[in-house]
Amino acid sequence: MSRIFPQLPGAVPAAYQVLSQQREELEQKYLHLLQIVESEKTAKWQLMQQCEEQSLEIRRLKRELIHLRKEQQSAEGSTEEESDDIKKIKKESNNGSGSGRFTQDVCKVQSFLRGWLCRRRWKSIVQDYIRSPHAESMRKRNQIVFTMVECEEEYVTQLSTLVTCFLRPLKMSASSKKPPITHEDVNSIFLNSETIMFLHQIFYQGLRARMESWPTLVLGDLFDMLLPMLSIYQEYVRNHHYSLQVRNWYKHIQTGRYK
């Protein structure tokens, strides 16, 4: 078949154009990753600053607590013996009558106010984080990952259909007594298709496994696995024009046979 249909001179520039487009896409992804790293650094600095402020606040509260304890101890040491009326009031408060009920009501109100203030503070923290650049970058990152998983699933399905419904039946027919096509031409049409299918099946399974640990995702090693296989994709892309020539040649033969 190579004698009948030599490779056209435009095939190599077309493949080079495809590779240049892929290179531009990789550069854009690299720039996007750099932006994510910068936003992560900014968020880290902000969180460290907040931690320092909180630690200072904790130290201040500890000092106040120590001071209050000292005052309480000094006040307890300077109190005189309680009178019978004071003992009676305390006894009534312990029994839940009089001022004891009032104290319980005050505690309930204080508890309600503390809960409301905590919920309000937490809501403010969550809203601030949602509007932060770090949250925006994480949303974009998650959207890219989910889209990549969906596209990879669809691509693996299409490759499986190509190999199962076309490549393997043609290989079987090429081994028959009267083969309608040769093994060489089958390989020319479907060059590296089965290998690429296996690679993407492994890549897709790796993505699904990493999605189980969401939102902590580490995907760099999966792409490192595909980098050494770029030569397979280069052969696959360069062979596209020639595979169309072989297919059209067999299509022309079949059309002339049934006329």
UniProtKB/TrEMBL annotation:
GO terms for molecular function: guanyl-nucleotide exchange factor activity. Residues 72-100 are annotated as: Disordered. Coiled coil: none annotated. Residues 140-259 form the DH domain. PROSITE patterns: DH_2 (PS50010), IQ (PS50096). Pfam families: RhoGEF. InterPro entries: DBL_dom_sf (IPR035899), DH_dom (IPR000219), FYVE_RhoGEF_PH (IPR051092). GO terms for cellular component: cytoplasm. PANTHER family: FACIOGENITAL DYSPLASIA PROTEIN (PTHR12673), LD03170P (PTHR12673:SF159). This is Ras-specific guanine nucleotide-releasing factor 1-like. It comes from Branchiostoma belcheri.
